[in-house]
Design brief:
heterodimer; A: mainly alpha; MetI-like fold; 15 helices; B: alpha/beta; D-Maltodextrin-Binding Protein, domain 2; six-stranded mixed β-sheet; globular; MetI-like (chain A); General L-amino acid transport system permease protein (chain A)
Chain lengths: 359, 344
């Protein structure tokens, strides 16, 4: 184990001696290093040449586009479609504002000062209502925009945020129920978790979107988007419950007993002793789940939602822009990457913070 | 006793009146009028020429225009149509569950859909032939030359089954690669992921028209697999709604025959050149009542959307980037197969 700690990063400075020893110590090493460097340099050059040097940037000179360089004109002309889907063109400021609210809220909730149940709860409920009121509009006396017109990045963010927000507490609840001492509750939780986990996400969502309206009476159906969010959140919760279960199992039974001996009640033991540790243990897998969920929201395209991938498809789905699908996909990939990379970095930060707390 | 007689009398009068009433009472139309919007099928992305999204994030295309025409006929305003994005696989369940009132989405009229799925179809408004397209440098001229090759197909469409059937019939082995979306299929084909792909005539023409490098690099093979009648699909059980949709399409065709366009419809209404035009445009009343609509529905529809020719050229033909020849989709009087029922 001593080796592992010696590899641990010692800051951002480069250890030149070590680097030299590892890359050009012998003629054979040198040859391999040079060869790999040339190949990689060539690939980078190809990418840059396509994406920047030979690229066309403005929608006005689309006629200069060729197969050699990227035609970013398509992004220039159609970015509002990609970002906001079918949302009415004149009302895009509302969609923009709603996206900013959600992103700000995510950023704000990363600061430790906010981390109390009350503050986080207030923040998210406010942000969520703000998002909904802005997007839907009728309650603020603005023009109403029904949910089937929501789309693009705005819809992807909304789906993601609501699934994780609803799914997290549901997952915790299911995990607690599964650990319950009451057999009925335990059995019920296991049944739900195992049942939902044995179905593909696509089936679950298709059922919620398409089959439920055939079975239920009108007044019980609700909006399609909410049915899908609830089904998605349930799916998320079942996996997250298993992640939490792993966290619970890592905590020695003695801690519960010690808590009881001190005269603490069930909820006090849970809230003050067990859960903080559970979260810490479950953190890496939770970040993983959240990242996967962000990407999985793209599946709603199958049930006719205009998420960012669907609107990207529509962006190059017209005669003028048809040849430039690659540029649109690169643009969407960059959006996905920036969100998921930030999520991952935030997870790393949390882990570091919590390791400090554990010392 | 007297009460009973009166009651029986009422029942008899009601029964006698029923046939005339029934012809103007469609549950779906009533529902649409109460709701104030017509729910139409859109697409989860874009289907060249039929369902697309323009730079202002608004739907456009042949199918969208027909939906708007129907909306104008029923509600008097094309803006009252609400386009619900649907995937191919989702369209029929969505119709059954009431998410949409009608499917106008490049949907072929098949026996299975007509019977097992509980749908009913309007008269066809478009005919598209199924053909293969292959990379020109392979040197293939017909489907037999594709032996041992790969073919891209769109998953879950009639084309997939049709192509598999056809290849079996001519005894040629190809491996099928399926894609969910036309745009993916197209991208895969252009990236040489498959030797050929089965497509529907309009799509192939669109691909060639928009392929910037060299349209001659692709050949459309001689084999003709089918000519699919494309029609609007509705839920079984509301024949009166089918009547409305059929006569909406008929009115567009009659308008073309009579030379009524969005530009001259007002003039024609003020001064109808013949009794047929007078009837169609509601100058001579009666058309509306039979369908449970306003007498002026056709005139309003043509003013808003134009006739069949205008709708075609705007989306697929001369005024669109695709410049697709009308061919079979012309009126019977111009060598096509579109014809309207008789307006009496």
């Amino acid at each position: 184990m001593a080796d592992v700690s010696s590899i641990a990063p010692t800051g951002s400075r480069i250890d030149w001696a070590k680097l030299r020893r590892r890359t050009i110590a012998t003629p054979k090493d040198t040859a391999i290093t040079v060869f790999v460097a040339i190949i990689m340099g060539w690939l980078v050059w190809l990418a840059l040449d396509w994406a920047i040097f030979k690229a066309v940037w403005s929608a006005d000179n689309v006629d200069q586009c060729s197969k050699d360089g990227a035609c970013w004109s398509v992004v220039h002309a159609r970015h509002r479609l990609i970002l906001f889907g079918l949302y009415p063109y004149d009302l895009h400021w509302r969609s923009t504002l709603a996206c900013v609210v959600i992103i700000l809220t995510v950023v704000l909730s990363c600061f430790p000062t906010i981390w109390s149940f009350k503050r986080l709860g207030t923040l998210w409920i406010t942000a969520f209502s703000a998002y909904y009121l802005l997007m839907e509009g009728s309650l603020l006396g603005m023009e109403q925009v029904t949910t089937d017109q929501w789309g693009g990045l705005a819809l992807t963010l909304f789906l993601f945020a609501s699934v994780v927000l609803l799914g997290m507490p549901m997952g915790l609840g299911l995990a607690l129920m599964r650990r319950s001492s009451m057999p009925v509750v335990r059995l019920f939780a296991s049944l739900i978790i195992d049942f939902i986990r044995s179905l593909p996400l696509l089936t679950t969502l298709f059922t919620a979107a398409v089959v439920v309206p055939i079975l239920l009476p009108d007044w019980l159906q609700g909006d399609k988007i909410w049915r899908v969010i609830i089904a998605f959140a349930l799916f998320f919760a079942c996996y997250q419950a298993e992640v939490f279960r792993g966290g619970f199992q890592a905590i020695p039974k003695g801690q519960f007993e010690a808590g009881k001996a001190l005269g603490l009640g069930y909820w006090q033991i849970l809230g003050r002793i067990v859960l903080p540790q559970v979260f810490r243990h479950a953190l890496p897998s939770t970040v993983n789940m959240v990242v996967v969920t962000f990407k999985e929201t793209a599946i709603v395209i199958i049930i006719g939602f205009f998420d960012i991938l669907a609107s990207a498809g529509a962006a190059f789905g017209t005669a003028l822009w048809a040849p430039y699908y690659m540029e649109v996909y690169v643009f969407v990939a960059l959006i996905y990457w920036s969100f998921i990379f930030s999520l991952g970095q935030y997870g790393e930060y949390l882990k570091r913070r919590m390791t400090v707390a554990a010392r | 006793m007297l009460k009973k007689v009166v009651k029986a009398g009422i029942v008899i009068t009601a029964m006698a009146a029923a046939p005339t009433l029934a012809s103007a009472e469609s549950a779906t139309v009533k529902q649409i009028q109460e709701r104030g919007t017509l729910l139409c099928s859109g697409h989860n992305g874009s289907y060249f020429g039929f369902v697309e999204v323009n730079d202002k994030n608004e739907w456009k295309g042949l199918d969208i225009d027909l939906c708007r025409a129907l909306t104008t006929a029923i509600l008097g305003d094309p803006e009252k149509s609400q386009i619900v994005p649907l995937s191919w696989a989702q369209r029929f369940p969505a119709l059954q569950s009431g998410d949409v009132d009608i499917i106008i989405k490049a949907t072929g009229w098949t026996m299975g859909r007509d019977t097992e799925l509980g749908l009913q179809f309007s008269v066809p408004y478009f005919f598209g032939g199924t053909q293969f397209m292959a990379h020109g440098d392979l040197g293939v001229t017909n489907a037999k030359d594709l032996e041992g090759g790969t073919m891209c197909v769109e998953a879950g469409t009639t084309l997939e089954r049709l192509a598999a059937n056809y290849m079996q019939t001519i005894g040629t082995n190809v491996s099928m690669v399926s894609y969910e979306k036309a745009s993916e299929l197209r991208a895969a084909y252009l990236a040489n992921r498959c030797d050929a792909f089965v497509g529907w005539g309009p799509n192939l023409a669109v691909l060639r028209a928009t392929e910037i490098e060299n349209p001659d690099a692709h050949v459309i093979l001689d084999d003709k697999l089918s000519s699919e009648p494309i029609a609007a699909a509705m839920r079984q059980g509301d024949e009166d709604f089918v009547d409305v949709v059929n006569w909406m399409l008929a009115a567009l065709m009659i308008a073309e025959e009579e030379g009524i366009t969005s530009a001259n419809v007002e003039e024609m209404t003020a001064n109808p050149p013949n009794p047929r035009v007078a009837r169609l445009l509601g100058v001579d009343p009666g058309m509306g009542e039979r369908l449970g609509l306003r007498d002026s529905w056709a005139a309003e529809m043509i003013a808003a959307m134009g006739n069949m020719e205008e709708i075609y050229h705007r989306n697929l033909g001369d005024n669109s980037p695709y410049k697709l020849d009308r061919g079979l989709n012309n009126l019977w009087s111009h060598g096509g197969v579109l014809y309207a029922p008789i307006l009496d």
